[in-house]
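Components:
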Amino acid sequence: MAITFKEVEYTYSPDTPFAYHALKGIDLNIPKGSFTALIGHTGSGKSTLIQHINGLLIPTKGEVCVDDYIITATNKQKLKPLRKKAGLVFQFPEYQLFEETIEKDIIFGPMNFGMNEESAKKIAREMLVKVGLDESYLERSPFELSGGQKRRVAIAGILAMEPDILVLDEPTAGLDPQGTKEMMRLFKDFQETGKSVIMVTHDMNQVLEYCDHAIVMNHGQIEKDCSVTELFNETEYLESLSIDLPIITSFIHQLNKKGFHLPVSIKSVDELIEAIGGELS
Amino acid sequence: MENMIEVKHLSFEYEAGAKTIEDISFTIPKGSYTTILGHNGSGKSTIAKLLIGLLEGQGEIIVDQIPLTIDHLYEVRSKIGIVFQNPDNQFIGSTVRDDIAFGLENLCIEPDLMPGIIEEYARKVNMYDFLDHEPTKLSGGQKQRVAIAGILAMSPSIIILDEATSMLDPLGKREINELVHQLNKEKGMTILSITHDIEEAAISDQVILMGDGHIIQTGAPDVVLKDVKTLESLALDVPFAYKITSALKKKGFPIEETIDQKGLVETLWQLHSKK
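Structure:
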């Protein structure tokens, strides 16, 4: 499912003294099956933008197309089916857990979209295992879990709705390195089944390792829409926005300044070691 | 060196029979920068809460020669400033200015001196333009800066950062880390940082590795962070420079394992130019 934004404008509290023009002339195309990183500073409009993808916010002007859904200020098309297709995971989703047991929490979403209880329970089991917890957790209270485990349960709840698009707002903030790796692998697996992932992140190491497409926002506008490799080639531009390079890319640039000729497209430490070894021998 | 914090045989359990912290002992030298590394649920944050007496465990805690007991609780707390991961739990004032003032009022600072102190620290964390804003309406990163300014303004002898920069973007993180390092060096504040960030640990003075409520290792980062087996068994990352140097050494290049990234660039440059 491709996502297209055409001249999208969004203003919070329009026609009041608090009016805030959060999105300005957004034109955007996110191809099906891509892993897109949405980058930019706090207040650049990232969160406002992602809430347009499942119709939580309706553009003040312009249109958003997700598959055959067209969202405009005047279109009164029902948005509930769209919300099943595009699963939105807010920052700290563990704060949204509310049920008595983990199973009840996970099946809440699918049942809300009309799935019967039996199928919902079946899928709850599958998703729980997928996020790295076993079935023994089903009957436990989500409030007894650690922060990282709660986050997994919250994400299992979104995956259980079987969305075609996963929209994630800093999904690994506060997780330890192992938890981060497992979570990112899960999203990568989701993408590799041909579905799309859009992720807001400040972690450029993740962008380098997992994403293929990058969008940079600044002051409510899109400043860059390019491949990840192109993005990290523009060191001066990124510096002007105070966006750090991934540790690997930054290291490559430092070595290249000292006479190395390492390709900046390197994405993993193993590749980097190979390349350095190659130049030294 | 004199110790700022001494912990002896400390244990704690939230529920009877399930120890979150089990018989841990460590010391933190005055003026040092110590990091506690450990995975989610390893008991790191519990230690922070025990150190300021928010939780009561078994064992002994001595802060700047004062034993942490009910009689000395406030004396000990006056020495420690703590910043938690989620700043929402820490706001009192209706404006950023009031919020920073709250801590100063508690310390009975002369009212005439307060505006100067508040403005100084608001500037240091880049929140000067927000002094009259309501803390709850700020973004996550901005809130965290305010919380940090509020603590720094009180000039405690010890600052505990409990994953305090995990909500900040990289620039914000770097700015706060630099500020904390500066306070550590220039004012001699003792820093205890609880973190997942192996690269932050690499530039600290002492690392305490935690796993499942126990201390697995304590020592200089140059030693502790080269113990790959232990780091991996605790689901922690290995420093970037170490990954590169150990792999190159295995390939037969004349290079020693290091955790120092800047030094590594120099070393590789020399190897490259000798080629």
